[in-house]
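Minutes, project check-in

Agenda point 3 was the complex the collaborators sent over. CS summarized: two entities, 471 residues total, and the question is how they sit relative to each other. Sequences were read into the notes so everyone works from the same version.
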Amino acid sequence: MFKIYNTLTSRKEVFKPLNRSLVRMYVCGPTVYDKTHIGHAKAYVAFDVLRRYLEFKGYNVLKVVNITDIDDKIIRKSIELKVDYREIADKYCKDFMEACEKLNIKRAHIYPKATEHIEEIINIIKELIEKGYAYESDGNVYFDVKKFKDYGKLSKINVEQVKPQDEGVGKRNPQDFALWKKAKPMEPYWDSPWGPGRPGWHIECSAMSSKYLGKQFDIHGGGEDLIFPHHENEIAQSEACFNKTPWVKYWIHVGLLMMGKDKMSKSYGNIITVEEITSKYSPMKVRFYLISGHYRSQMVFQEENLEATGAAYERILNTISTLKSISTIDVKVKDSSLKRIMNIGRIRRRFLEALDDDLNTPKAIAELHSLTNFANDEIIPNEDYPAARIALKVYEDAYRILGVFKEVFEEEEVREDKKLYELVNLLVTVRQIHRSRREWEVADLIARGLRSLGIELSDQKDKTIWWFKST
RNA sequence: GCCGGGGUGGCCGAGUGGCGAGGCAGCGGACUGCAGAUCCGCCUCACGGGGGUUCAAAUCCCUCCCCCGGCUCCA
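CS then shared the predicted structure for the full assembly.
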């Protein structure tokens, strides 16, 4: 039974999709005006784990991640650099996609862009005006927060204490937020019933989510800094327009990545981009680091900690490689492996139970460590290949769900080339003969040669194991 | 100020009443042609401060202190 924390209700809830045959999720994607940094990555990885876990549990998942490709900052940058705003947006959109790919974040099914949904946005604004929730004022359109009685239910904020949102003139209440912004000179604009302008920040999410997911769906989320005003405003305009309550069943928010005392943010200028970090550490290690804390917790970025979890990660990879090597042995089982296999089963159960409890990845990873310990002091020394195979299945589950260990699980087919396999075995055996005769030069020549081909060797007590090393 | 989340051993990080999760680092051993990997032991009673409830509290209650986020663009 999968439980997940819902910001809307402030408690963990049993996950049950609105429609039993499909889970619909919408994640607030980036505003593409700068490079994707590891703070973003933490959030997107978290939602990727959620999506993968739901799929692992057998759900069909439809995931939409929006791209905000028009806003003040994009415009500002385009003016600064004297280039079309679309050039800026395209560049950083591409950067975002590359970052996701590196970190093994599965592609969303749809990446809708705000500028490609102006018509849908205008229609919603029109409807909100008709229903009396929004009003036009000198080319701008605002949402009247006083008309929406549930305003503040997500962020638990009292309307009165909200400071004015957006600048803007002719608002009924200072807290009203813009649905449509009148174009200023030199700004890109679209025609609308209220004159030339562009959509406000929040409205695109209502328009695009309803287009692709329907007027009510299961999961919506983003970083915890989006709770207010972004998500609060989305709820207001969507529930007012679609007449569905709750508009979204589960609101999920990810703890921010901190740099020392501040959150990592473009506006603080303390960002480390995904590109930078992955040029220094393998993307898989970065991903493993990002899920080493609970998704709802804030994490203070420390390079030393990344290195420490990276060391732990490597240990698991080594063990998986060794297990693979063991699993292909076809000798007699020394003694019954049933007990060991039962134990692996218990570990797997605890692993999944941890994830069932609000995606407790640190706990789940601890279970993987305990599997690793068990493999190293029980399975491997005993060459228990049936147990090795079962253990590998558990790591493979972890690969599917957590999206780590890609190095050792992808491209399996390629590696199962039988002749290549036999050939390497032959070389390793030959090397063993030389080793037993203490002919180190030949032995090392073979070892170096194999390593240069991406085949790792490890001399154990009475044998040599080997595996294909991924890049 | 208001709303939300936190403060756990050198570091990271689980744990919401009952035998000290797990990892990393460090130290000492074992194994070993080299290398890598691995194993064993040690770091064996840590839970922000102070009160309280209980046979029993990191965990519940009260109180104080500190940190972060939100209340402005933000993942």
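Noted in discussion: DSSP finds 16 helices and 15 strands in chain A.
Follow-up: revisit at the next meeting once the mutant set is ready.
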